[in-house]
Design a protein that fits this description.
The structure holds three protein chains of three kinds. By secondary structure, chain B is of the alpha+beta class. In chain B, 49% of the residues lie in helices and 15% in strands. Chain C has 18 helices and no strands. Classes of the chains: A mainly alpha, B alpha+beta, C mainly alpha.
C-alpha cells in the first residue's frame, strides 16, 4: 500500500495533525456550547420559517388564489422555487458519489455537509408541489394505490408522476447513503461521550457500529455501489424535472437539450450553495484546517466548468431557436423578444448573475479568496433562481395567442413561502452543524498520510509514512483484565 | 476456561498493523477480529477474508426492481384501466415504453440501493438500538485492535505481537 | 523507444491500398448511375408497395421528399408524390442523387468517425492535463500518438467539404441550386430563412476554422509535451501546457457543437435538435476511450509501455462503461422528448430511421447500451484485456453504426446497403489510423517522464482488483 502523492499537489489537511487530533477537531463543535452568533442565526431562521409556515396555512386555508397565479401563468414562484431547491440538492450527491468514483480526495472534507444540504434542500423542494395540490391531505394520491382509495391508478405517462418517483427515490437513497457514512462517525462520538444521555443518543444513532474488518470491507463496497447507483440517479432527477417542461409542446420549454443542461445548471447552483454554506461553516466550527483554500479553489473550478456548460447550453438554445425559423421561438426566455420585452430586467439579471459573474473566477486570486468566493456564490444562487423564473414566467407570459398574454405579479404569500423555506433550510442546517459530525472524520483519516501537510513535507524529505516499530517490553504492559468497556 | 481467552493487541498506525497481521498470519495463528477506526485497504486480503458479495446482491435486487416496475406499469396502465392520455392510448406496453423508462430506472435504483443497504445492515448486525461490540472505545478514535484467541500459547503470541509494534497487549476473558 | 514493426507497417499500408482501390471502384460505380437506374428502383418499390399495402409506400415517399414536407407551396406537389407516379422526373432525380451519394456517404461516415474519435482523444487528453489526473500519465503518450491521426483526416475533410460546395456530390441538400432563389421551383423558404448560417462561404470558413483550432492545439501540445521530458524547469513547461489545454477545452466546447450542426445536422436542413451537439460528442467520446484502451492493450502486450498495469486498463474500461451509459442517456433524452411531444418537424428524423433503418437503428442501441453494461459491470472483467477487447469491439461497431444512421438516411435514404463502398472506406481509415498512430508513437519517448504526476501513475493500484497481467510484478 502506498501513500505516495505527487508533491505538486497541495495538502488537504493543514497543520501537524495526528489521527487523534482529527477526532478532537471534529467532536469539538458537538461537545462544546454554541456561541452567540449561532443563536442569532438560528432565531432569524426560525422566525423566517414560522412566517413561511403561516403563509402556508393561509394558502391551504384560503386556496391557491392567494398566490399571484393567473389564467395563463398557472405555474410561477412555486415551481421556480421547487426547481431551485431540487437543483441545489444536486451538489451533495455529486460530491459524495461522482467525486468518489473519480477518486477526488478533496471531497472528503465537504461531502458530509453537502449531503446534509441535499437532504434539507429536497425537503424544501418537496413542499411546493404538495402545497400546490391545494388539498395536501390527499397528497398520498400520487402513489400507485388501488382505486378503492379514491383515485384511479396514477398516470405513468406523466412527467409529474416521474417526479414523484425520482424525488422520493433520490431523497431516500441520499438519506441512506448519508447515514451509512455517518455510522462510524457517530460511533466515534458515542465512544468518547461522557454524559450518559449523550452516549445513549449517539449509541442509538450509530446503530451499534463496531468497525470490524469485515464491516469496513462491506462498508467500502456499499459506498462504491451506492456511488455507482447515485450517479445516474442524481442525473435522472434533474433530467425528469427538466422533462416537466420539455415533454410539452410549448416553444421555449420543448427543447431536447433540457435534460443535460438542467443537470449542469443544478450542479452549478448546488456548488454555489455548498460554497456559501462552507464559507460560514468553516468559520463557525473552526474547520479551517480541513476546508482549505484548496477546497474553495476546487469548488470554484467546478463552478466555472458547469457554468461554462450552462453558457454553451444558453448559446445553443438561442441559436437553435433562431435556426428553427419558427416565429413563436422569439418569445422564449433566451431570445431577442425576451431581451426587449417587459421581462428584460429578468433576462439581463440571468445573464449578469449566471454568465458574467462566474467569469471573474478565471483569476486565480479570486478563486482562492474566501470572501470573493462567498459573494460570487450568492450571486450564482440568485442567477440560478432567475434562470428558472425566466424559463417559467417569460415563456408562459407570451403564448401563441396575444389574448393570453399576461404578466405575473407575486403576492406577499408567494414571497413569504419562499422566505419560509430558506428559513426552514437554515434551521435544519444549523441544528445539523451542532449535533452531527460535520466532516467525515473516518474518511479524512484515510487520506491524512497522503494529503496531510505534515506527512507531505516529510515524504518530500524522504521520510517514510510508516513509523519505526518500538518493541514493547513483554512484562511491561501485559495485564489480565476485563477491558471490555463497551459491555 | 482457556479457550475463551483472547489477546487484544493495540496498534496506532495502519501500516504497522498491516505488517503485524501478515506476520501473525504467516505464523499460522487465527485472527479472530480486527477493529479499525477507518478502512484499511488490503487488510481484508491480509486477514484472509472472503470478498464481499454485496455488489452482486445489489445487481439482483436491481433486476427485481426492474421486473417489478415493468409488471406495475403494465398492470396499472395497460391491463387494469387503459386510457387514452394525450393521444397516446395505453393499449400496448411496448408502444408506451419510452414513457415508462423513467419509472423503470427509478425503481431499479430504489430496489438495488435500499435492499443492498438493508442486507449490509443485517449481515453486519447494525441497526437502531443495537449495542456496540468494539471491545475498546479507542478503536473508533485512533487505535487498531487485533483479537487473537489463546489456545495455550499465550507466551508465544505475546512475544510475537511485541515484535510487531503493538503499543499495548492485554489478555482478556471473553464472555 | 518503441519500434514500429515492419509487419504492422505493411499491414496498415495494405489496408490503405485495398481501401483506396475499393473507394475508387465505388466512385466509378456511383458515377455510372443514371435516371434509368433510379426509375427501376422506384418501380420496384412501387410494385413491392402494392403487395404490402399502400400505406407503406405513402410513408416512405413522404419521407423521401423530406425537403418538401414543410413549405406550404409544395403541398400539392407532395400529394402528387403520394400517388407514386414512377416517371415523375423530380422524384427520379432525387433517387438518382441518393444513388450517386452512396460512395460519398460511405466515405464520409468513416471519415467523420475517424476524425471525430481522434479529436475526442485529443479532448480526453486535454482533460487529463486540466484535471491534474494522476493515474493516466503512463498512457499520455499513447493518447498523443493517436491524435496524430487528426491532421490527415482533417485535410481529407477539407477536400470533401470543398467538393460538396463545388456540387461534386449531393450530400448537403441546402447546397442544391435554386434553394435560395424565390423564382426557382426548388425554392425553400425555411432554408432561405437561415441563409445567414447555411451558405457555402460561411460553411467552409467555419469548417476550416474548427479544424485549424484543433490541429493547432495538437501541434503545440505535442511539442510542449516532448519538451517537458527534458525541460527540468520546475514545471514551467508543464504549466504552460496546462494553460494551453484550458484554452483548448474552452474552444472545443464551442466548436464541437457548431461542427455537429454544420457537418451532420445540416444534412437534414429542416430538422433541429438542441441536444444534437452533445449527443455527437458522447458517441465520439466512447469511441475515443475505446480506441485508447485498444492501443494501450496492444502496446502493453508488446512491452512498449512499462508501468501500465491492470489498474490502468481497469480505469479505461470504467470510462468505456460510464460513457456508454452517458451516451444512452443522451440518446434516450433526445428520442423520448421528440417521441413524447410528437411534433412533425422533429419526428421526421426518427420516422426515417424507424422505417428504412430499423435493424441498424435498434441494433446499435443494444450494442451500445445493453452489451457494455452487462460485460463491463463486473470489476474483475474490467481489468481483463480480453473482456475489454470484446466489449470495445462491440462498442466501436455500435458507434460506427450510430454515425452511419446519423448520416445515411439523409444522404442516401432508402438506397442504403452495406457493401464495398462502406467496407473499403473503413479499411482505408483503419489503415491510416494504424499508420499515423504507431509511427507517431515511435517518434517520442513512450513515457512522459517529465510529468510531475508520473510517479503517481506508476504506483497506481486500484484497491478493488488484483494485478495479474503484464507489468503486475513491479507495483508496490
Amino acid at each position: 500500500m502506498s501513500h505516495y502523492e505527487a508533491s505538486i499537489r497541495e495538502p488537504l489537511v493543514l497543520g501537524d495533525k495526528s489521527y487523534h487530533d482529527i477526532t478532537e477537531d471534529i467532536a469539538r463543535p458537538i461537545e462544546g456550547k454554541a456561541n452567540k452568533n449561532w443563536y442569532i442565526a438560528f432565531y432569524i431562521s426560525l422566525a423566517a420559517m414560522l412566517w413561511g409556515f403561516g403563509c402556508i396555512f393561509y394558502t391551504v386555508g384560503t386556496g391557491i388564489g392567494v398566490w399571484g397565479l393567473n389564467k395563463n401563468i398557472g405555474w410561477a414562484w412555486d415551481i421556480t422555487n421547487f426547481v431551485w431547491w431540487v437543483g441545489i440538492g444536486h451538489a451533495g450527491t455529486l460530491i459524495s458519489a461522482v467525486l468518489l468514483l473519480f477518486r477526488q480526495k478533496w471531497r472528503m472534507a465537504i461531502n458530509r455537509s453537502a449531503e446534509a444540504m441535499t437532504i434539507f434542500a429536497v425537503f424544501q423542494a418537496g413542499l411546493f408541489p404538495i402545497i400546490h395540490m391545494g388539498r395536501p391531505w390527499n397528497a398520498y394520491w400520487v402513489l400507485p394505490i388501488p382505486n378503492q382509495f379514491g383515485s384511479l391508478w396514477v398516470n405513468f405517462n406523466s412527467p409529474l408522476l416521474w417526479d414523484v418517483f425520482a424525488i422520493s427515490t433520490y431523497l431516500s437513497v441520499s438519506l441512506v447513503f448519508w447515514w451509512t457514512g455517518l455510522l462510524p462517525d457517530f460511533a466515534m462520538i458515542r465512544d468518547r461521550a461522557v454524559k450518559p444521555f449523550q452516549k445513549k443518543i449517539y449509541s442509538l444513532l450509530s446503530f451499534g457500529w463496531s468497525g470490524r474488518a469485515k464491516d469496513w470491507q462491506r462498508f467500502e463496497e456499499v459506498s462504491l455501489v451506492l456511488a455507482g447507483l447515485a450517479t445516474p440517479l442524481v442525473l435522472s432527477v434533474h433530467t425528469i424535472v427538466s422533462m416537466d417542461f420539455a415533454t410539452s409542446i410549448n416553444p421555449g420549454w420543448h427543447s431536447t437539450i433540457f435534460p443535460p443542461y438542467f443537470v449542469a445548471g443544478a450542479i452549478f447552483s448546488g456548488f454555489a450553495m455548498v460554497q456559501t454554506l462552507m464559507g460560514i461553516m468553516r468559520k463557525v466550527t473552526n474547520m479551517e484546517d480541513y476546508i482549505t483554500r484548496m477546497h474553495v479553489e476546487y469548488m470554484n473550478i467546478v463552478i466555472i466548468l458547469t457554468g461554462g456548460i450552462v453558457a454553451v447550453a444558453y448559446a445553443t438554445e438561442f441559436f437553435i431557436a433562431w435556426y428553427t425559423g419558427s416565429p413563436y421561438e422569439n418569445y422564449t426566455y433566451l431570445s431577442v423578444g425576451a431581451a426587449t420585452g417587459p421581462y428584460a430586467w429578468a433576462f439581463y439579471s440571468l445573464l449578469f448573475f449566471n454568465i458574467l459573474t462566474p467569469q471573474i473566477l478565471w483569476f486565480k486570486k479570486i478563486r482562492r479568496s474566501f470572501i470573493a468566493s462567498f459573494i460570487i456564490s450568492i450571486f450564482i444562487n440568485i442567477g440560478m433562481w432567475f434562470e428558472r423564473f425566466d424559463i417559467i414566467a417569460i415563456v408562459l407570459s407570451k403564448g401563441h395567442l396575444p389574448s393570453t398574454w399576461w404578466r405575473f405579479e407575486p403576492t406577499f404569500v408567494d414571497v413569504g413561502i419562499f422566505i419560509g423555506t430558506i428559513g426552514f433550510f437554515f434551521v435544519l442546517f444549523l441544528l445539523y452543524a451542532r449535533t452531527f459530525p460535520v466532516i467525515a472524520q473516518a474518511e479524512v483519516k484515510t487520506i491524512l498520510k497522503s494529503s496531510g501537510e505534515f506527512y507531505k513535507k516529510r515524504s518530500e524529505q524522504g521520510i517514510p509514512t510508516k513509523p519505526a516499530i518500538v518493541v514493547l517490553n513483554t512484562a511491561d504492559k501485559k495485564k489480565d483484565s476485563d477491558n471490555n468497556l463497551n459491555g | 476456561m482457556d479457550s475463551s481467552k483472547v489477546i487484544h493487541a493495540f496498534y496506532t498506525d495502519e501500516e504497522v498493523l498491516l505488517d503485524a497481521v501478515k506476520a501473525v498470519k504467516s505464523e499460522h495463528h487465527h485472527i479472530e477480529e480486527v477493529f479499525c477506526p477507518f478502512p484499511v485497504h488490503g487488510l481484508d486480503k491480509a486477514m484472509g477474508l472472503a470478498p464481499t458479495k454485496l455488489a452482486i446482491t445489489a445487481f439482483m435486487y436491481g433486476l427485481i426492481g426492474l421486473g417489478f416496475s415493468i409488471w406495475m406499469t403494465n398492470y396499472m396502465m395497460i391491463v387494469d384501466w387503459p386510457q387514452d392520455i394525450g393521444g397516446k392510448p395505453s393499449f400496448s406496453w411496448i408502444e408506451n415504453m419510452p414513457a415508462f423508462v423513467p419509472i423503470m430506472f427509478e425503481l431499479t435504483v430504489f430496489f438495488a440501493a435500499h435492499l443492498m443497504v438493508i442486507t449490509f445492515y443485517m449481515r453486519s448486525r447494525i441497526w437502531p438500538f443495537k449495542d456496540a461490540e468494539n471491545p475498546d472505545p479507542r478503536t473508533t478514535d485512533d487505535h487498531f485492535l487485533m483479537e487473537i484467541p489463546v489456545q495455550n500459547n499465550e507466551e508465544e503470541l505475546t512475544s510475537l505481537l511485541c515484535k510487531t509494534g503493538a503499543v499495548e497487549i492485554n489478555v482478556v476473558d471473553k464472555h | 523507444m518503441y519500434q514500429f514493426s515492419g509487419r504492422l507497417k505493411t499491414f496498415s499500408k495494405a489496408l490503405i491500398f485495398i481501401g483506396l482501390i475499393g473507394i475508387a471502384f465505388s466512385f466509378y460505380n456511383g458515377s455510372k448511375k443514371t435516371l434509368e437506374d433510379a426509375n427501376h428502383i422506384i418501380e420496384a418499390v412501387h410494385n413491392d408497395g402494392h403487395e404490402n399495402g399502400h400505406a407503406q409506400v405513402k410513408d416512405s415517399h413522404v419521407e423521401e421528399m423530406k425537403h418538401d414536407d414543410h413549405a406550404s407551396q409544395d403541398d400539392d406537389h407532395v400529394s402528387k408524390e403520394i400517388k407514386a407516379e414512377p416517371h415523375n422526373d423530380d422524384h427520379a432525380e432525387h433517387v438518382l442523387h441518393q444513388l450517386q451519394n452512396r460512395p460519398w456517404s460511405a466515405f464520409y461516415v468513416a471519415l467523420f468517425f475517424s476524425l471525430g474519435l481522434s479529436l475526442l482523444v485529443l479532448t480526453f487528453y486535454a482533460i487529463q492535463r486540466v484535471a491534474l489526473v494522476g493515474w493516466s500519465v503512463v498512457i499520455l503518450r499513447v493518447m498523443e500518438a493517436i491524435t496524430a491521426n487528426l491532421l490527415p483526416t482533417s485535410i481529407i475533410m477539407v477536400v470533401l467539404l470543398v467538393a460538396s460546395v463545388m456540387h461534386l456530390n449531393h450530400l448537403f441538400p441546402w447546397m442544391a441550386e435554386g434553394i435560395f432563389d424565390p423564382e426557382s421551383d426548388k425554392y425553400d423558404a425555411i432554408i432561405d430563412g437561415k441563409s445567414w448560417w447555411m451558405n457555402s462561404t460561411g460553411f467552409i470558413v467555419r469548417s476550416i476554422a474548427y479544424l485549424l483550432i484543433w490541429n493547432a492545439y495538437r501541434f503545440f501540445i505535442r511539442k510542449g509535451s516532448i519538451k517537458e521530458d527534458t525541460a527540468n524547469d520546475s514545471n514551467k513547461t508543464y504549466k504552460n501546457n496546462y494553460n494551453m489545454s484550458v484554452v483548448f477545452l474552452f474552444l472545443f466546447m464551442i466548436t464541437e457543437s457548431m461542427m455537429s450542426w454544420d457537418w451532420i445536422m445540416g444534412l437534414d436542413p429542416h430538422w433541429f435538435s438542441t441536444l444534437f451537439g452533445w449527443y455527437v460528442l458522447a458517441t465520439l467520446l466512447v469511441s475515443a476511450i475505446t480506441v485508447i484502451a485498444f492501443v494501450t492493450i496492444y502496446l502493453r502486450s508488446k512491452g512498449a509501455i512499462p508501468g501500465v498495469n491492470d489498474s490502468h486498463i481497469h480505469d479505461l474500461a470504467k470510462f468505456m462503461f460510464g460513457f456508454s451509459v452517458f451516451w444512452t442517456y443522451l440518446w434516450f433524452a433526445q428520442f423520448m422528448l421528440i417521441w413524447y411531444a410528437d411534433i412533425p418537424e422533429e419526428t421526421t428524423y426518427f420516422v426515417a430511421r424507424f422505417t428504412e433503418y430499423k435493424l441498424p437503428f435498434i441494433g446499435m442501441v443494444f450494442m451500445n447500451f445493453v452489451f457494455p453494461i452487462l460485460l463491463l459491470l463486473n470489476s474483475d472483467f474490467k481489468s481483463k484485456p480480453w473482456f475489454v477487447f470484446i466489449g470495445g469491439t462491440v462498442i466501436l461497431i455500435g458507434h460506427y453504426i450510430d454515425i452511419f444512421v446519423m448520416i445515411m438516411p439523409s444522404t442516401v435514404g432508402a438506397q442504403w446497403s452495406f457493401g464495398i463502398p462502406e467496407i473499403s472506406a473503413i479499411f482505408f481509415f483503419v489503415g491510416l489510423f494504424i499508420y499515423t498512430t504507431f509511427s507517431a508513437f515511435a517518434r517520442a519517448n513512450p513515457i512522459a517522464k517529465g510529468n510531475p504526476f508520473l510517479q503517481e501513475s506508476e504506483h497506481y493500484h486500484y484497491y478493488n482488483i488484483e494485478h495479474t497481467g503484464e507489468g503486475s510484478g513491479d507495483h508496490h
